[in-house]
Input
Amino acid sequence: MSSSSAAPRRDGKAEAVAGGKPPMREALVAAAFRLFVERGYERTTVDDIVALAGVGRRSFFRYFPSKEDVVFPDHERCLADMTAFLAASSQGDEPVRRVCDAARLVLRMYAENPAFSVQRYRLTTQVPGLRAYELSVVWRYERALAAYLRGRFAGQPDGTLRADVIAAAVVAAHNNALRSWLRSGAQGDAATAVDHALGLVQSAFGPPAGAIGPGEPGPGEPDDVMVVVSRRGAPLWRVVQEIETALGRP
Amino acid sequence: MSSSSAAPRRDGKAEAVAGGKPPMREALVAAAFRLFVERGYERTTVDDIVALAGVGRRSFFRYFPSKEDVVFPDHERCLADMTAFLAASSQGDEPVRRVCDAARLVLRMYAENPAFSVQRYRLTTQVPGLRAYELSVVWRYERALAAYLRGRFAGQPDGTLRADVIAAAVVAAHNNALRSWLRSGAQGDAATAVDHALGLVQSAFGPPAGAIGPGEPGPGEPDDVMVVVSRRGAPLWRVVQEIETALGRP
Output
């Protein structure tokens, strides 16, 4: 993997916010990662980075508050995108599906530049300080998802509890799939793996498949029960068929 | 809240590990918290703490690697207890219930000394460095639970995914209840609140209530019956999984 391939894609939006000189931010990230890989993260100073990038220290700190921040150059933009996406939700959006879609924004950021993402993943697993930084970033994503769900579940029994648990489950499912993909060196389709992982959360916490949408009368009271009585020797397909019939599913 | 009530209970086990002088560790924690409350965490140095406790710097670092560690004096013991508890599990233990029981060990640690726990919670919400430290501790609990579940789900479809998601859900549920209790100033029964929160996770991921466990009834009777009782909203895959388990099929 060459150091030039490690530079993240130019991100017009973030650059415009940061000060109107797109190549400098990109050059700082590329220089930083080249040095992190060559010398190690701890032995690279901000002075080393700016010397290689050919800019002054003040330019570095205009883009990044600290050396740690240059490792995660796009998380602030992604957090802002996620917050905006959730704020733009309507009451018609099914909440669990909505937070799953919000999590996919993070995956998209990683998938924009697989080589850079893999390199950063390896760096993060090796440097304890970066692990701690990443935990705090993950925590902020989780709180953004939980805040949205708390709003949607406001006034419902266990609303904040369900919001926190679902947000944590979404983040864990997303990260399980993302990290498998990063560990593999970005082989295969990350989006498919993340979709599958988030499907588990939706099946656990979202409305049952075939459920009637919010506001419409449901197929029974929330606490009603289904009882299947079967001889133990009955073939499994017949038991499943009975369950599907009882639930009114095809 | 007096500073003396803020000292954590003496913990014979941890003291024995740390070096056989029970009162010194306790005195250091009490002195540290008295200063943290009076002057603030950032403005308190290790020198201040040892001066108030009447011991030397070396004594402090014999018990605590850093100033941060004195804020969380019992997490290492609790992590060790959790790991030992999970390692002592049998194949007969239902895995989701087992990780919920493991999480209750953390609650018990907080509930041992409510005044100290409330004081620490307030400190942690105010000091960013302590928030980061706490996130890393929470992460270690979550990984301990996930490692156990990964072992139990080994070879099953989506085994590591389900392990990670359930571990995150357990931690989020536990912390939702724990933090509500801490925010309230330790009013009410924390154990009941945590039981209720963990019940949500068990209903989402554990076996359906009322399912007959494998091996309980004699499987040989041609006319015996299996009864699955489930809420209508339970995801179909989980119902099917339980049936497979009850029937002893892979």
